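Hey, resending since the last one bounced:
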Amino acid sequence: MKRANHLFEAWAALMWDKHRWVALVTIIIVACSPILLRGLHFRTLTGTPLSDADTGEVYQDGIRRFGEGCPLTIVLKRRRDVTPALFDRFTDALADEMRAWPDIRFVQSQTRPRESRNASAWRLGVVLANSADETRQTLLSRLTGKEMHKQLRRSRKKLLMAKEEERDFITADLLDVGGLVMPFYTSRLRPNAFDPSLYFDAPGGASRLVFVYPTVTAEDAPYSQNLLTRTRATIERLRRSQQAESIEVSITGRHALAADGTVLLQKELSIITLIAGSLLFVLFWAVFRNLPVTLLCGLPVAVSMSAVIVLICLAFNPVDMLAMGFAAIILGLSIDVTIHCVGRLHQMLGNAASVREATIRTIGDCGPPIFIGVTTTAAAFLCLGFAKFSGMRQFGLLAASGLLLSLATSLAVFPAAVRWIYGRIPPAKTDLRYHLLPRHFFSMACLHPRTALALAAVAVAVSVAAAAQFRFDMRIETTFPATLPAM
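The structure tokens again:
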């Protein structure tokens, strides 16, 4: 133990003497953390064990081939001054433009035509009997091997997404010959010869749905944000060009939830960090009633949290939503480090010849037990690396590495901070005193140890019984706040 004390004392002396270098590194870390935080992304819809199991490989293969079961859904709402023709024209223009995007697998804006099973074959016969050579050549080009293969792949995707009553029409015309000859067919019949394709409208026609199936899953939050940005820009441009400003557009689905959830988490992480920092400052002030001591407690915490943010952005980006709890754990334990050091420094100042000597002895005494406590806690979090959920694994790795980095940063900044704040003034003038101490609570526990142990046993029994009754809610609608735009 004495050897460990000497090592930490040597470390404290080095940080005290090299305080200018510590200040330079501190400024760089604090300046970089908010910049990097803007590029921090969150995986809001992952974390299940499917990515590890054999069934997960099949699931991921299905996602790559056919898309997600919950697509990006665009909701169009029209007011009374929007005519049905304008509503249809805007819907068709939006669907056609998004179909041309290379990262969009399929766009579904209409249902299948309401016709009999033999309608496609009958239409083909009409066209072949009455069309010009140009139409026949276009039809024959559709029947080449390459084009047939492409159309069969499209039909397979349509079958997976179609309702039961639509599948008969798709299987009756797998090559979509009907779609090829439809313009010629409709031009030679009266307008109401058959029911046209129907949009996905609500009763009354006030709202309409357009389903978009991207090739990239919603687990990629940066892609989801980019997709929504492009989609909204396209919608605004079409609203101006089509003079359809009265059409209201909203977007939902897994990609929208991932994008909106990422923006919300970035905002909340910044707000919560600021609120936590302000509350800590108030608490330190209430305990010490002294600005220099308050800064001495808060400065190592602020720098250590900035260092952890830099680590997260560089090594763990994107962060799973399940791992968001790491911040509170690291913040709480980094505060413990500074509080222990400040308390020990308060005791050492009465018997030391200088503030430097008191600081070195403080780190020498507090360093080994704090190091053991933090490293064992980090090891406990590291055990989460065996979890099946990827979000829990990342939470364990993030918390463990963040705790170790926070410990190193706090023990580096604390000696330098003491020098920045107190310099070379005599120990008697540091005015480091406690104003709030929970003496009565701990003294009662010491006077009545059996009662305290009995209460502890009851607490353990109740917690174990409560843990056995845990229930987990895996629904998306309860994971995200109801105020989220995509919800």
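The first strand starts at residue 42 and ends at 43.

Sorry for the duplicate.
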